[in-house]
Write a structure and sequence with these properties.
The structure is a homodimer of 469-residue chains. Chain A has 469 residues and is α+β, with helices and mostly antiparallel strands. Chain A has helices spanning 4-14, 23-28, 51-64, 116-123, 142-148, 155-158, 193-197, 231-243, 256-266, 287-303, 314-325, 327-332, 350-363, 390-409, 428-447; strands spanning 19-20, 44-46, 68-71, 88-91, 98-102, 107-110, 128-129, 165-172, 177-181, 205-213, 215-216, 220-228, 250-255, 276-284, 307-310, 337-340, 367-373, 378-385. Among the domains of chain A are: 4-91, Uridine Diphospho-n-acetylenolpyruvylglucosamine Reductase, domain 2 (2-Layer Sandwich), CATH 3.30.43; 98-216, Uridine Diphospho-n-acetylenolpyruvylglucosamine Reductase, domain 3; 218-329, Alpha-Beta Plaits (2-Layer Sandwich). Chains A, B: This is Glycolate oxidase.
Chain lengths: 469, 469
């Protein structure tokens, strides 16, 4: 528990109502959406409402050597917000203003606490959209998703969060606030700090304002569901679509286990005997082009022995996407622990990865379903387990290790969109090597020499703690 | 002059033929394409042919405290390659292999010495293109353009170099080589080091391999030339096109002075009495959409009192682009010093900037022409001067200062695509402030504590040396 004097000082900075203590509050902020990582109690939750307040909190914490854990909505999936060293949870949720919508320059400037969907609602009247689309778009905040470099369902065509961040203001560990980037498409003044802070998981500074790029909302779209009896046919369909140079907005896969679970949960009429489903949506500004792309997809699905269902109304389209979005909650309803991974491979290796995942499930006798963003190689193998069954959890951990090793062997990465956080920290060296780990430490030590910001995340506390291959 | 022992050691590392000395060689590498910056003689030019050689050269230089100046083709426009502290010019031009073209994953992996156009030629048979398109595409190297984060003519629709770099290998000042990123569209493993090194101007490490994203080459394009009697009409056409949510591949402007100079130089039949020309090209995969976009552009040009010339053949299209590409050489032929700036503003402020630039030319009694990438706000005000006329050069420097101040006042940036180098270093603090400068120093000191890599560039040698506003 923090000294009462410090609590008083925090109250003086942000106001009494914006400082939360008491065990109910502390427990609420002791965990996030991640399964199978330790929980930890913060000593206080501080909810600043301005950049000036953030700076003062950081200065106080630096002076008193208290850890700061920045937090948005806590939807992250790698344990990134858990206050391992206790200290201060700095919730940015009250900094929730949309500062500016600049339709002429296709930019928006927002505070970190703005919920992604709220930004999209605000820009819709201008015919604009903010493309990054994590599954948690209705609750996740802009600050959290920038800090985690969120991906989501539209990554294949539209890219990820980092492709939409043009500038930001950050409060550093030394209490300085710095602005970089801006509204120009081209900017080579100084290092590309915006990109360094995107995906830095709160370990280098606290993001207090974001200028992001917007796009015109596509006027036409066509959603389709393709069912396959053989997994390889689904995988080949994915690569054939890309090879045909058709780039769908979304190209999602569900394996049989996910299909059955979603159908049990949501009763949307999915074909429960299919080995795999693809959910495909093409979109664009020209009706004809969208129709041509849809035709190309239909032809490729049929060539690969898939059976098609085409959404002929907005309602049918919404149904398809509800089914996809139900995948995680449906799986989560089956057991008390859902280990959701996001090992990612180059898109040409998606079939290999899908087959390897099924084999890993069998090998370790686990309930393992896979869904995810097949189009960009970002799959979500999901293991359901009972955390009170030590033997099963040990097999889960072995399986996860093998999943990571397989992704790397196929030229992929440990994490496509969930981040490293606590969950994947010990595997980091397997991907980036000792000199990569050293470079991580160098950057961290330079910007946050006392490791005050989100300590225990992303960067191993000791060098070279990675698991040998 | 370096000790003979060191020359011998360098020869042992890279081979005798790859170590150049002698005054002709040293003079050749004492300058680059930038006007009005100091030249400086290197002590030796070293041309490694492998990453292992680069590491050994760096280790030797670190041990002997010799500065290293990495260099591609020397086409940069901010003095970024000039060996201010003498030492070693490390030319990467002999590391010129295309390591892999992976058409299935839409990526290429190249060594830094590959010329951009050579990459484009190699991928053309696959129907692919590498979109970043600096004016010097036929000579500039991939390494140089990544280190400078080159922009170019297609920035509006396709973005700049940083949007196409997916991964790289870098040799650090400590002699380590590190790989990061890769072929996956999504990758949140570790900090986004690729983005940190893109545009770092050789001050943080030496890029020895690059994995870049490719795009399908658009199958259709339509190029047009629009002439305007009034500059404001040209400016309004640019913003009306963007407002109509038509995103041309290129949207270039030339002012009257540039038009007349190009016409004198290249005799392509430009209307020399026009106040401004726009060169506009729309492109895409669907003929109908390209035609529709062209129609929209034509309507907007006519609404703004422009007169149109539409390229009806590939030859006519090539002629238009030759005229645009002739702008710089044409202007350069007029006097002995061509100060080419790239102050950049949000696209909604392009007209304001064009008018301000004309006024600055008048105010300082200078020959100032402007051309550039109107669509992305990246203008190239170009001042022609006689470097032997001290009074005129002093007015040039005042004008440049006012150009930068105006760009910042309009919400823009010092440099859209040419970089900071030597040329804009003293203005850097005006944009990023003291805490931004301090952050630059922090990163530089962390990665290159002895300032061995490209010293004297991008980061002011002493803190807070920026010009007050």
């Amino acid at each position: 528990m923090l000294d009462e004097i410090i609590i008083n000082q925090l109250q003086a900075i942000v106001g009494k109502d914006n400082v939360l203590i008491g065990s109910v509050n502390l427990t609420t902020y002791s965990y996030d959406a991640t399964a199978d990582v330790p929980h930890a109690m913060p000593e206080v939750i501080v909810m600043p409402t301005s950049t000036a307040q953030v700076r003062k909190v950081v200065q106080l914490a630096a002076w008193k050597s208290i850890a700061i854990y920045p937090r948005g909505a806590g939807t992250n999936l790698s344990g990134g917000t858990i206050p391992l060293d206790h200290g201060i949870v700095l919730s940015l949720q009250k900094m929730d203003q949309i500062v500016e919508i600049d339709a002429e320059n296709l930019t928006a400037t927002v505070q970190p606490g703005v919920v992604i969907q709220d930004l999209n609602n605000a820009i819709a009247p201008f015919g604009l959209m903010y493309p990054p689309d994590p599954g948690t778009v209705t609750t996740a905040t802009m600050g959290g998703s920038v800090a985690e470099n969120s991906g989501g369902l539209r990554g294949l065509k539209y890219g990820v969060t980092k492709h939409y961040v043009m500038g930001m203001e950050v409060v550093l560990a030394n209490g300085n606030s710095v602005r970089f980037g801006g509204k120009t498409v081209k900017n080579v003044t100084a290092y590309d700090f915006s990109s360094l802070f995107v995906g830095s998981e709160g370990t280098l500074g606290i993001i207090v304002e974001i200028t992001c790029k917007l796009l015109p909302e596509p006027k036409f779209h066509k959603a389709m569901l393709a069912a396959f009896n053989v997994m390889e046919d689904a995988g080949k369909t994915v690569s054939d679509i890309i090879k045909a140079q058709v780039i769908p907005a979304t190209l999602e896969i569900m394996d049989n286990m996910t299909i059955r679970t979603v159908e049990d949960f949501a009763h949307v009429g999915l074909p429960t005997d299919a080995a795999a489903l693809l959910l495909i949506e093409v979109d664009g500004m020209a009706e004809l082009v969208v129709a041509q792309e849809a035709d190309a997809v239909i032809r490729i699905v049929e060539e690969n022995h898939g059976s098609l269902h085409i959404a002929n109304s907005d309602e049918e389209r919404d149904n398809l996407w509800s089914a996809r979005r139900a995948a995680l909650p449906a799986l989560a309803s089956l057991n008390n622990t859902v280990v959701l991974e996001d090992a990612t491979v180059p898109r040409s290796r998606v079939t290999d990865m899908l087959l390897a995942l099924a084999e890993i499930g069998r090998k370790y006798r686990l309930v393992l379903g896979t869904f995810g963003h097949a189009g960009d190689g970002n799959l979500h193998p999901t293991i359901l387990a009972d955390k009170y069954n030590a033997d099963e959890m040990s097999r889960v951990h072995q399986a996860v290790e093998e999943i990571f090793a397989t992704a790397l062997k196929l030229g992929g990465t440990l994490s496509g969109e969930h981040g490293i956080g606590i969950a994947k920290m010990r595997f980091l060296g397997n991907e980036i090597g000792d000199s990569g780990l050293e470079l991580m430490q160098t950057i961290k030590n330079a910007l946050d020499p006392t490791h005050m910001l989100n300590p225990g995340k992303l960067i191993p506390r000791e060098e070279k703690t990675h698991v040998s291959r």
